[in-house]
Specification:
Helix content is 58%, strand content 6%. The protein is mainly alpha-helical. The longest helix is centred in the first third of the chain and has 24 residues.
């Protein structure tokens, strides 16, 4: 489980957005978006909503830590955050809450085949040379295709013809190096 780490007044808290936190936030605010909108206000109410959200997520983080076998810590309350948070810690606290929500809703897929890599896609992603329209037209004309016809052909077909052209004219290298 992923958590956002935040230190307030020298105490480190782990903010966790899990299912229980999601339903608690839905019950209180109507959803995470509405909670974030209330936190966004630069008012006392916005600050107290931030402290409340931090308390909800920090409670879940502490319970997760305990479940994982860490030494139990104190579960913070809204008043702890309201009393101890310094003005310069408010923005990082809001960011940590947003990050915890993002991590909670994020999806991490760990299937046995995840380490497989599509070499073709990797090669395409690594190619830095981009073809310009004029180059595309030139390739088409050299392959005996009019530019108008080339525009209606799939690019892969034009490039396959280009590779065949290079091989036929002794340039080889499968089109590379030209």
């Amino acid at each position: 489980m992923k958590a956002a780490k935040i230190t307030v007044a020298g105490t480190t808290y782990f903010l966790v957005m899990d299912g229980e936190a999601m339903f608690t936030i839905r019950d209180i605010y109507g959803g995470t978006r509405l909670m974030l909108e209330k936190m966004e206000q630069d008012t006392r109410e916005g600050f107290l909503e931030t402290c409340n959200a931090a308390a909800i997520l920090a409670e879940r983080g502490e319970l997760v830590r305990r479940r994982l076998g860490y030494e139990p810590g104190r579960i913070p309350e809204r008043d702890d955050f309201a009393l101890l948070t310094q003005p310069y810690e408010i923005v990082p606290l809001k960011r940590a809450i947003a990050n915890a929500i993002k991590l909670g809703y994020g999806r991490e897929i760990t299937a046995p085949g995840d380490d497989e890599v599509d070499e073709g896609l990797e090669e395409l992603n690594q190619k830095k040379n981009k073809i310009r329209r004029a180059d595309y037209y030139r390739i088409a004309v050299l392959c005996g295709i009019s530019p108008a016809d080339a525009l209606f052909m799939p690019p892969g077909e034009v490039f396959d013809l280009w590779e065949l052209y290079l091989i036929a004219h002794g340039k080889g290298n499968n089109g590379e190096g030209n």
